[in-house]
Design goal:
The complex is a heterotrimer of chains A (362), B (182) and C (254).
Chain A: E1 8-12, H1 13-23, E2 28-31, H2 38-47, E3 56-59, H3 63-75, E4 80-84, H4 86-102, E5 106-112, H5 128-132, E6 144-145, H6 150-167, E7 170-176, H7 177-181, E8 183-187, H8 197-203, E9 219-220, H9 227-247, E10 251-254, E11 261-264, H10 267-282, E12 287-292, E13 294-296, H11 300-306, E14 312-317, H12 323-331, E15 337-341, H13 350-361
Helix pairs in contact in A: 1-2, 1-6, 3-4, 10-13, 11-12
Chain B: E1 2-10, H1 15-28, E2 32-37, E3 47-55, E4 67-72, H2 75-81, E5 85-93, E6 108-111, H3 114-120, H4 127-138, H5 144-154, H6 163-176, E7 178-179
Parallel strand pairs in B: 1-4, 4-5, 5-6
Antiparallel strand pairs in B: 1-3, 2-3, 6-7
Helix pairs in contact in B: 1-5, 3-4, 4-6, 5-6
Chain C: H1 3-6, H2 33-46, E1 53-57, H3 65-68, E2 72-75, H4 81-91, E3 96-102, H5 103-109, H6 111-119, E4 125-130, E5 133-134, E6 140-141, H7 160-163, H8 169-173, E7 179-186, H9 190-207, E8 213-219, H10 223-226, H11 230-244, E9 248-252
Parallel strand pairs in C: 1-2, 1-3, 3-4, 4-8, 7-8
Antiparallel strand pairs in C: 5-6, 7-9
Helix pairs in contact in C: 2-9, 5-6
The chains are: A alpha/beta (362), B alpha/beta (182), C alpha/beta (254).
Chain lengths: 362, 182, 254
């Protein structure tokens, strides 16, 4: 994709999501205000996309309503999304589970803040388990993308829709308050027109657009009371999750080639660890960073490969230690896997995480 | 070149917008930039701060705990950020309302009484531009013409008639800033 | 003359709507759902809008509504039908969109979604089946359960001091500016079935005139939940439900 330099703008991660949504042909946004992501709804209301692309933007009465509006729109084959922050995303779990069960595509953005409960509005990564292990009920997974820059907030909005429609599943962007609130340079995706109804009928033959003479009625449902049939649906979903695991693992490595020790971090913490790598290298320490971009599917295989040639890993998270369980699973006891984290909205500094690496692994 | 800056003061002093203008100026100059605000309830009256990084390379951490330059506009900000300036770095403070002044001798200290000047000249809205002018006098990290371009991007068109006033304020700040000796 | 001689077009006096299929219904004998389904099918056929109608099914006895009417359906999470319908109608404004909800779905767990969809003036139709009880789960107390009425969770009869009062959703919703039409009907006599059909058709027509939300409450029986025969249920409904949930239009902005 050609990106002319004059297209570079400066904006917040939250604003980038709003602009990217309009540009990638999103049909509907439904959301409810909550810090630190209200700029997404505010930006959409400011740019009034219903006057240009025809995209519907609606402030719902709750996060519960928002996610069910996404369900309704997705059931019509429309590209729809909602955004929230941790407490709001907890409220959406029922709807996400229903979307997974009904095999509906849609995008959910979680700009995480510290919990549990009402917690704090400051950044956190403590919703990792909720996002990657299935926060709602039942056996389901969904692609989870972890942006680490404003540019990725824009790019992953497009990617999340692509994955959602490719695999007929909800897809989540798991960001945090820093990525949402910070401004960086961004090149927005090019404008893609919203799909016409004919295109939707062709690409999503299951969509409820009205029963025409040439087909049977479509119905969107996650209900199946016959156990044998319900198990078949589950098996179909599981097969799809295995396909996602096979095809969609994404990660970034920074100076891992000769590394003795490797940071594992996503989102904001990956940026902080990247700085720690720079400092460590100046000090002559061979430190690298692996940044999982997809948290589901997780880069287990790559971390397992790296564990053959390094002396240890340290998972750095704004949580009490959640992703570290996946790192341990991948490393499988071959080398030490340590953890360093802060909670309550505190963002560890580069010096702090490097110090943790030295203390725990050297 | 990488310049890591913290700007901190009371909400309403124009701290976040000063950072934004700086970030836009860097953008206009073709630099990598990041602008990371504190976004808590302090926006509504308490102490607000913003971390601005300008660099010729990809910026790693947008969150820092040491800075090349700190600009502090109230006592809590001075108390919090004076210890976090890197040795050899720069601290710029507005003397208005301070009861404890900086004490470090391993950093470059500058005072700019922008608040006092602005109120005396009935232009309280330009405090942040005066301070920005002071910063650029001693740390010419961006060209003034790029600041004005940056300002034009951040100001809504209905406020573009204020551009000359802001340019004037930058020059005022350049005149006002002076070294401070402990 | 045998039966084949009788079944020929010349002798046809009544025909089931083709919008309703032949899937055997799971509803109990005497249940009102089947009648309301048939009315919806007839209206959709008469208005010739089968390809333009999208229904939203609830959680409750109506959960399988999509099995019986040959239109496109979405089955919503419990209480969320108005949110689902909102999105469908906003994205497909030239479609007829209705929710089909019971009193547990609309008046208990989905109260917020119901009130806000109505308040926003969504151009959708609410088909609201009120039988004062949770039928699907086996006869528990609903917000609409009458004072003194027995259910499995109010076995001694609903005690208003303990369990609160009956909730009259139609009376509540009629006050919202986004609502153009609120009516309360029943389907237990031939005359009432005809009136209900006219009401639903009017609501469908209003939804395409951008007048806002329409609520058609159908006060219904639940023989199984009430532990009565279908005939006794109808009598009990007239004697006990109608005094609390009075029949007729509550609001009609023509």
């Amino acid at each position: 994709m050609s990106r002319k330099s004059d297209e570079v703008t400066l904006m917040k991660g939250n604003e980038a999501i709003a602009h990217a949504a309009v540009r990638c042909g999103c049909d509907g946004y439904f959301g409810y205000p909550i810090t630190p992501q209200s700029e997404i709804l505010e930006t959409l209301m400011e740019i009034e996309p219903w006057k240009t692309t025809g995209m519907v933007v609606l402030q719902a009465e709750s996060e519960v309503a928002s996610i069910n509006m996404v369900y309704g729109a997705a059931g019509c084959g429309k590209k729809s999304m909602t955004t929230s922050s941790s407490p709001g995303v907890s409220l959406m779990q029922e709807g996400i589970s229903y979307m997974a069960g009904a095999e509906l595509p849609g995008v959910i953005v979680n700009v995480m803040r510290g919990g549990p409960g009402l917690g704090t509005i400051q950044p956190s990564q403590a919703d990792y388990f909720q996002a990657t292990k299935g926060g709602g009920h039942g056996d389901y997974r969904m692609p989870v993308l972890a942006p680490a820059s404003v540019q990725e907030m824009a790019d992953f909005t497009v990617l999340a829709f692509d994955l959602a429609f490719k695999y007929l599943t909800p897809a989540m962007i798991l960001a945090d308050g820093i990525i949402g609130q910070m401004m960086e340079k961004v090149v927005l995706p090019p404008f893609t027109p919203r799909r016409s109804e004919e295109e939707i009928r062709r690409e999503c033959p299951w969509a409820t657009l009205g029963k025409t003479q040439d087909r049977n009625p479509n119905y969107i449902s996650s209900l199946e009371l016959r156990s044998e049939e319900m198990e078949k649906i589950n098996l179909r979903l599981q097969k799809r999750y295995r396909e996602i695991e096979k095809n969609e693992v994404r990660y970034e490595e920074i100076q891992c080639e000769d590394a003795d020790f490797i940071f594992v971090a996503f989102g904001t913490m990956a940026r902080v660890c990247q700085k720690a790598v720079e400092i460590a290298r100046e000090e002559g320490l061979k430190v690298g960073l692996i940044r999982p971009i997809t948290l589901f599917p997780y880069p287990y295989n790559r971390i397992a490969e790296l564990s053959e040639k390094v002396k240890g890993f340290i998972s750095v998270e704004m949580s009490a230690g959640q992703m570290v369980e996946d790192v341990r699973l991948a490393v499988s006891g071959k080398v030490p896997v340590e953890f360093y984290g802060r909670m309550g909205g505190i963002v560890p500094s580069p010096e702090e995480v490097l110090n943790a690496l030295k203390t725990k692994l050297l | 070149m990488t310049e890591e800056i913290i700007i901190s003061g009371f909400g309403g002093q124009g701290v976040l917008s000063m950072g934004k203008i700086l970030a836009y100026s860097g953008l206009v100059q073709g630099q990598e930039v990041s602008w990371m605000p504190s976004y808590g309830p302090e926006q509504r009256g308490g102490t607000a701060n913003v971390t601005v990084i300008l660099s010729n390379q990809r910026i790693s951490s947008p969150v820092l705990n040491t800075y090349d330059t700190a600009i502090v506009l109230n006592q809590p900000s001075l108390d919090k950020f004076e210890p976090l300036v890197k040795p050899g770095g720069t601290l710029i403070f507005d003397g208005n309302g301070l009861h404890r002044l900086p004490v470090r001798t391993d950093i470059n200290l500058y005072q700019i009484n922008a608040t006092e000047y602005a109120y005396a000249n009935n232009s309280s809205k330009t405090i942040n531009m005066i301070i920005l002018g002071g910063l650029l006098k001693i740390r010419p990290i961006v060209e003034i013409e790029n600041v004005l371009k940056g300002l034009k991007k951040t100001l809504p068109p209905r406020h573009h008639h204020l551009l000359p006033l802001n340019e004037q304020a930058i020059h005022t700040g350049m005149d006002l800033i002076m070294p401070y000796a402990v | 003359m045998n039966v084949k001689d009788i079944i020929n077009p010349a002798n046809l006096v009544y025909e089931k709507t083709t919008v309703m299929n032949d899937t055997p219904m799971h509803y109990c004998p005497g249940c009102s759902h089947g009648v309301v389904h048939k009315l919806l099918g007839e209206i959709i056929q008469e208005m010739d809008i089968q390809d333009k109608t999208i229904g939203v099914a609830p959680v409750g006895c109506g959960v399988f509504a999509y099995k019986y009417l040959d239109i496109d359906w979405q089955q919503a999470a419990h209480g969320r039908a108005p949110a689902v319908a909102t999105a469908i109608k906003r994205l497909l404004p030239d479609r007829y969109v209705f929710t089909y909800q019971g009193d547990g779905d609309l008046a208990a767990i989905g109260t917020a979604e119901t009130i806000h969809a109505c308040s926003r003036g969504e151009n959708i139709v609410f088909i609201y089946i009120n039988n004062g009880i949770y039928g699907m789960t086996g006869g528990q107390m609903a917000p609409t359960t009458l004072p003194g009425m027995k259910s499995t969770t109010s076995p001694k009869g609903r005690d208003e001091k303990l369990e609160g009062h009956s909730l009259d959703m139609s009376k509540l919703l009629m006050h919202l500016d986004g609502v153009c039409y609120v009516t309360r009907q029943s389907v237990h006599t031939v005359a009432s079935v005809r009136k209900t059909k006219r009401a639903i058709r009017k609501a469908f027509e209003y939804s395409m005139m951008n007048k806002g939300a329409s609520v058609v409450e159908i006060v219904s029986t639940c023989s199984s939940g009430w532990r009565m025969s279908p005939a006794d249920s109808n009598t009990w409904m007239e004697e006990h439900m109608f005094p609390v949930y009075a029949m007729g239009d509550l609001k009609d902005i023509e």
